[in-house]
Amino acid sequence: MQSVVGNLNETFVAAAGAVAQARSQLADFAASVGATASQTDSVRLAASEAMTNSVLHAYRGDPGPIYVSAAVVAGELQIEIADDGCGLTPRADRPGLGLGLGLISQVSDEFTIASRATGGTEVRIRFRLLDAEAPERSGARDDEHAADPGRRRLQRSSASLLIA
User: What's 77's domain CATH number?
Assistant: First the structure.
């Protein structure tokens, strides 16, 4: 049985100012549910990249909505950033080197990208939170990965791309 500890649900207009606003709200939420300082920084970066993709690529013409949600389920911070835009199509008229998705992959434990049935794109990002009730694991995540950096790299590479 999964237990939901808390959640965040916001809708933003796909404009440059929305990126900073969503990033700040998601980082505050992450910190409030027990994310480490390092994870909170990772949430900021991942949120910036996903939001920026929606702002730059989702809508052609008038900006549309970007839906941001976050919840803690079974010890994981699960973030979803979705839009109703044109979906995963190349945009030669938009700037960018295409590094954002790779950055999300590097800072998160898992992420997926999916075309939404109703149109648009959905990015799901997951971070495993430390169990505050297990003091023997306190700090274990950073120590484990410092001792075995290949292990973390393997987990990060488990991100998948889903295009329906």
Answer: 3.30.565.10
For 52-87, the pLDDT digits (tens) are 989 988 998 788 999 999 999 999 999 999 999 988
Could you give the CA distance from residue 113 to residue 162 in angstroms, rounded to a whole number?
A: 5
Partner residues linked to 8 by β-bridges: 70
pTM of full prediction above 0.70: yes
For 83-117, write each residue's pLDDT tens digit.
999 887 666 665 554 678 778 988 889 999 999 98
Range(s) of the domain holding residue 73 = 4-161
Alpha-carbon distance 82 to 67, whole Å?
5
Contact, 81 vs 51, CB < 8 A?
yes
User: Residue holding tokens 């992420």?
Assistant: 111
User: How many domains does one find in the chain?
Assistant: 1
Note whether 111 and 70 are within 8 A (CB).
no
The structure tokens listed for 117 are 């049935």
